[in-house]
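Help needed: design a sequence for this.
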């Protein structure tokens, strides 16, 4: 039997470090420390010991024989060591000592009283011949008494006492008969020996430490590593499923048949047999003399445990259940619903990203690891345990199911059932160092015990004897992980819960907080320290600043124990799988979005698909239980989980009348004309219609275009059917509202819907504008108002050529149009705001620096250094800076967030404006940007698919506080701004700004926003802002890419960026088309070109003839370099909504196929058409 052994080379004292990190009780300890110079020293002294409050064991066997008890066995020393794990046992501390012919020994115990909480249950249990300390629960302890050769007299009803009686009767041979979770040390006084053991799979921890000395030196056992650091020369993790005696060494008592390579699976295992055994496992873990509850995440595993618990509790009793997450996270929403259905007394611990960052140190101290994945997932568990411990002492959890049924996403790539089973065996064997370590340490840090029924020995044996073919995922099999297990509870758990996708990388508790965690760590590790990481940490060298930060904290508590920490081969769970997992890697941890979203790309199917797949399961799946706990109870509404990531208040949805029965009836031509006129008002010249074509410069207008194929959400949209119906419904309210009513409409319906839909934090502000271009004037106004004495405002605009033409003009305080939205007078495009104030030196008031998106060869350029230099120069002379970056360019590229600007500081002079007008972001990303202090510009007329144009700027709470302190007289509001903004564009919380603006009503803007919000809210209701939707978009992109590669040789995919596919078009001669030619292609796509092709003598196939007359709207051309440009296929909110509504099949790409056919047709006749 081998165990991991680590020699200690302590660099700094454990206690001195604790004194810096924790406050706690004072205590003395004599420690033996091997200093970094290698010399052994003895020291006594006062030190700060962590005062923590769970059930833990400590045993010392010192071979230093003599008349006097050695220091290591003295009560004050043992109790002080126990104090280090005091949290494991807040109900008391016990101590006992003795001497045999081979050892002085001492036993220490921290008690968490679950069984027999009276004093009779206190440990150590000591008899003249035997003494024992134990951690955990022996569920079959009463049955084990019946196996004894003769009755015995017991001193308590504690499950741990049985260990002494079993040992007397059977020696070490009794250990395999224990059913439970346990770690214990037993002293045999008569024979001068001892026995230590750890449960089958490692639910309870145990460590063995050795120190050299006479007569075998010293051996120590402890529940936690922190008890042995500084006092042992070597430490080993005690292997699970093993016992140890000095005579035998390690003996493996748990060798399940299913771990053998030649194991033959049991065909007699049925769903009912599995379910019944799991119910028994749950019931036995409800054994307790104190209050207990359930960790209920809303995922399938914890819901199964909760379902099986409920019938075994009196109907009058409401079991407590607990959930953790960020506000309105998927877990919070799902758990809330299932708890209602089960009748649990449910409570929640809502945490924030800042709170998560604040407990990193505590988590690493208790967790005793630097493993990034484990630390991330332990943070919410820490909050959950802390919350639950206020009410109960024990909770059941759903841990372990994934290791038995292949619940991790990467199992969908398993090529065959042999490798599938082999991987199950591998990760099952590692549970004690990963999931179970998290479950034990985070609960025990708060004096709480976690019990795991899925890892019951009998149930595990049955589950692992099931033919792995029944667990596999993929074509011809189940389309959801753990479908076999889910199907066992069909009819007992609502379908929405039963087929809920497994959340990855902590995303179930909320999105965005892990990215905040990364930034927090990065800010605390210098570039210099990171560059020397390999020198400081040659073993398992950190590859990110997050890893480095965790490692640094770990090293401060557990010096030289880096090789002791369990790490997966390859740095993550899937790294050691026998099949390749290219995305589920250690490196993948760096990009949280890729890890949490991309991994589900191949495995996600919605509940309809999963249910359909389940219905095709083996015939063995009949009704498992006819006594469903859900009988007669209200079932979950179909949308209850759909709104987990897309929470919109009912008020906002009803306010826009999205319900089908409230939509406007078929409008008359006069009503259509009136609506179009209103939608055209209050905008710039880009919305003007050509008198002949009745189309604007983007070839659309404020009306629906029946028959048109639309993939133009990155440029401009026609009015959708839904938006049209809602707009007609609102027409009278908007057009006839008096000034007071209109102000309320803008504040509650428009601004309120934006805030609710994007889930903006309290205190944030929303300023509306006629377009996403016009809104760029606001940051300049803010900078000038907050720094009125500055000589100039420096404005830097990144990603030129991949943002709107007028953005740089507006960002620099210039007119971006020849007609202002709120003025009938003609204005020269490019005219500067300062000219209207008769300033003499216009050029020095606002300095604009434009930064191109790509170099001459089309490669994306990183301008981080240029921006940092300009910001530093501006600070040096007291000038404010506006840094305009882009979160989704025309090709959907994302500029890196400018680091080191200090934009989130209380008195920041740099304002980072993130142009998110493409609208291809999650609400978690918006929250993250606001958290960093960014100002965000959005529009309703691109991805949200509203009519042209509507804009808004989102202002973070801290900046809003600064603006609210300004007076109207101090504001910089040039006359030009009156041509763009009204009082109602600014929120009521900024009265100074409203006071300086005209009391006009931009009714056209209000209507355009209402139309856009109709589509956005419908998109949210359909689950558009979810991992499921992102997977569907990825599937769509893959399908369209395949279509291009197989059927359209003159069209090439240049880049795929989420919901935008950028395509290059080659002419008939094979040369790529540049932007001037692509503009002609774009125009030809928007009209029937049948007659043009006829004139040039083209002979068309039936498909080509159909393509020629089809109106296609796509994204306008973008210059990549001088040689070529691209055009774009872009999904908008209605497109993604349709993808979500047709989730049983691969995404339908017939629209894209038809568009591509027309593009190919134009390319084929490019010479004849004069391109």
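Sure. Designed sequence:
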């Amino acid at each position: 039997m081998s165990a991991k052994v680590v020699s200690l080379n302590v660099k700094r004292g454990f206690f001195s470090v604790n004194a810096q990190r924790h406050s706690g009780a004072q205590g003395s300890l004599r420690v033996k420390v091997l200093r970094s110079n290698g010399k052994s020293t003895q020291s006594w002294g006062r030190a700060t010991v962590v005062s923590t409050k769970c059930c833990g064991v400590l045993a010392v066997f010192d071979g230093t024989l003599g008349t006097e008890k050695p220091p290591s066995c003295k009560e004050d020393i043992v109790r002080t060591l126990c104090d280090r794990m005091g949290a494991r046992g807040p109900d008391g501390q016990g101590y006992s000592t003795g001497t045999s012919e081979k050892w002085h020994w001492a036993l220490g115990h921290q008690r968490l009283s679950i069984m027999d909480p009276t004093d009779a249950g206190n440990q150590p249990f000591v008899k003249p011949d035997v003494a024992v300390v134990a951690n955990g629960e022996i569920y079959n302890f009463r049955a084990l008494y019946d196996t004894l050769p003769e009755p015995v007299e017991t001193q308590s009803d504690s499950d741990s006492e049985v260990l002494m009686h079993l040992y007397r009767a059977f020696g070490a041979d009794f250990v395999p008969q224990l059913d439970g979770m346990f770690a214990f040390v037993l002293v045999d006084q008569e024979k001068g020996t001892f026995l230590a053991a750890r449960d089958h799979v490692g639910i309870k921890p145990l460590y063995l430490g050795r120190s050299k000395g006479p007569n075998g030196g010293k051996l120590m056992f402890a529940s936690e590593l922190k008890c042995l650091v500084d006092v042992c020369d070597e430490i080993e993790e005690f292997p699970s499923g093993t016992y140890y005696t000095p005579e035998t060494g390690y003996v493996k008592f748990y060798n399940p048949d299913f771990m053998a390579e030649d194991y033959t699976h049991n065909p007699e295992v049925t769903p009912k047999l599995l379910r019944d055994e799991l119910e028994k496992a749950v019931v036995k873990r409800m054994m307790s003399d104190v209050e207990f509850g359930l960790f209920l995440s809303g995922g399938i595993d914890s819901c199964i445990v909760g379902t099986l618990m409920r019938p075994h509790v009196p109907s009058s009793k409401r079991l407590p259940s607990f959930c953790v997450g960020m506000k309105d996270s998927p877990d919070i929403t799902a758990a809330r619903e299932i708890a209602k259905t089960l009748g649990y007394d449910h409570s929640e611990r809502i945490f924030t990203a800042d709170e998560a960052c604040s407990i990193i140190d505590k988590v690493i101290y208790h967790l005793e690891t630097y493993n990034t994945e484990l630390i991330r997932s332990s943070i919410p568990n820490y909050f959950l345990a802390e919350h639950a411990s206020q009410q109960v002492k024990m909770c059941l959890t759903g841990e372990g199911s994934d290791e038995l049924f292949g619940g991790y996403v990467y199992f969908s790539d398993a090529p065959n059932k042999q490798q599938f089973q082999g991987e199950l065996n591998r990760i099952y064997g590692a549970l004690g160092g990963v999931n179970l370590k998290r479950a034990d340490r985070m609960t025990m840090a708060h004096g709480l015990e976690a019990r795991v029924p899925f890892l019951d020995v009998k149930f595990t044996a049955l589950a692992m004897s099931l033919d792995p073919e029944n667990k596999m995922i993929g074509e011809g099999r189940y389309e959801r992980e753990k479908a076999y297990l889910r199907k066992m509870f069909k009819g007992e758990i609502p379908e929405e819960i039963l087929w809920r996708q497994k959340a990855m990388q902590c995303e179930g508790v909320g999105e965005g907080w892990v990215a905040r965690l990364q930034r927090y760590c990065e800010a605390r590790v210098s570039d210099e320290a990171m560059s020397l990481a390999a020198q400081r940490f040659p073993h398992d060298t950190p590859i990110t600043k997050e890893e480095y930060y965790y490692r640094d904290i770990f090293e401060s508590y557990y010096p030289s124990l880096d090789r002791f920490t369990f790490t997966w081969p390859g740095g993550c769970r899937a790294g050691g799988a026998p099949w390749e997992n290219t995305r589920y890697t250690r490196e993948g941890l760096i990009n949280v979005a890729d890890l949490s979203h991309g991994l589900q790309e191949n495995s996600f199917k919605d509940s309809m698909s999963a249910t359909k797949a389940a219905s095709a399961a083996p015939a063995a799946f009949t009704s498992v239980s006819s006594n469903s706990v859900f009988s007669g109870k209200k079932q979950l509404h179909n949308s209850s989980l759909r709104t987990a990531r897309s929470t919109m208040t009912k008020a906002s949805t009803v306010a826009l009348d999205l319900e089908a029965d409230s939509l406007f009836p078929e409008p008359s031509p006069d009503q259509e004309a009136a609506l179009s006129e209103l939608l055209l008002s209050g905008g710039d010249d880009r919305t003007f219609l050509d008198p002949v074509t009745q189309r604007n410069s983007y070839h659309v207008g404020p009306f629906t275009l029946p028959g048109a194929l639309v993939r133009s959400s990155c440029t401009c949209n026609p009015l959708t059917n839904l938006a049209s119906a809602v707009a007609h419904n609102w027409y009278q309210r908007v057009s006839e509202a008096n000034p007071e009513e209109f102000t309320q409409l803008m504040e509650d319906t428009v601004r309120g819907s934006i805030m609710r839909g994007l889930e903006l934090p309290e205190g944030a502000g929303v300023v509306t504008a006629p377009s996403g271009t016009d809104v760029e004037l606001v940051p300049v106004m803010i900078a000038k108002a907050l720094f009125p004495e500055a000589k100039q405002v420096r404005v830097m605009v990144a990603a030129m050529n991949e943002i709107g033409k007028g953005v740089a003009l507006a960002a620099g305080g210039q007119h971006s149009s020849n007609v202002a939205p709120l003025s009938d007078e003609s204005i020269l495009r490019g005219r500067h705001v300062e000219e209207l104030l008769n300033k003499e030196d216009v050029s020095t008031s606002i300095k604009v620096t434009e930064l191109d998106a790509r170099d001459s060869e089309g490669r994306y350029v990183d301008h981080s250094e240029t921006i940092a230099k300009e910001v530093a120069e501006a600070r040096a002379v007291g000038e404010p800076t506006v840094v305009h970056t882009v979160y989704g360019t025309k090709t959907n590229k994302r500029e890196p967030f400018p680091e080191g600007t200090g934009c989130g500081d209380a008195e920041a002079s740099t304002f980072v404006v993130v142009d998110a007008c493409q609208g291809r972001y999650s609400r978690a990303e918006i929250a993250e940007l606001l958290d960093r202090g960014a100002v965000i510009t959005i529009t309703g007329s691109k991805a949200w698919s509203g009519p042209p144009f509507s804009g808004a700027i989102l202002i973070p709470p801290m900046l809003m506080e600064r603006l609210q302190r300004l007076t109207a007289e101090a504001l910089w509001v040039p006359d030009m701004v009156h041509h763009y903004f009204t009082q109602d564009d600014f929120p009521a919380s900024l009265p100074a700004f409203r006071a300086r603006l005209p009391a006009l009503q931009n009714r056209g803007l209000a209507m355009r926003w209402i139309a856009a919000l109709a589509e956005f809210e419908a998109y949210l209701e359909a689950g558009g802002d979810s991992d499921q939707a992102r997977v569907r978009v990825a599937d769509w992109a893959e399908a369209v890419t395949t279509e291009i590669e197989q059927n359209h040789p003159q069209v090439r995919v240049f880049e795929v960026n989420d919901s935008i596919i950028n395509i290059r078009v080659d002419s008939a001669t094979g040369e790529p088309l540049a932007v001037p030619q692509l503009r002609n292609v774009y125009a030809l796509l928007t009209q029937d070109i049948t007659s043009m092709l006829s004139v040039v003598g083209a002979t068309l196939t039936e498909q080509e003839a159909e393509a020629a007359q089809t109106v296609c709207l796509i994204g306008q051309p973008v210059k990549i370099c001088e040689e070529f440009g691209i055009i774009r296929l872009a999904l908008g909110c209605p497109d993604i909504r349709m993808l979500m509504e047709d989730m049983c099949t691969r995404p339908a790409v017939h629209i894209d196929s038809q568009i591509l056919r027309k593009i190919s047709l134009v390319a084929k006749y490019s010479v004849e058409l004069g391109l």
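The radius of gyration is 34 Å.
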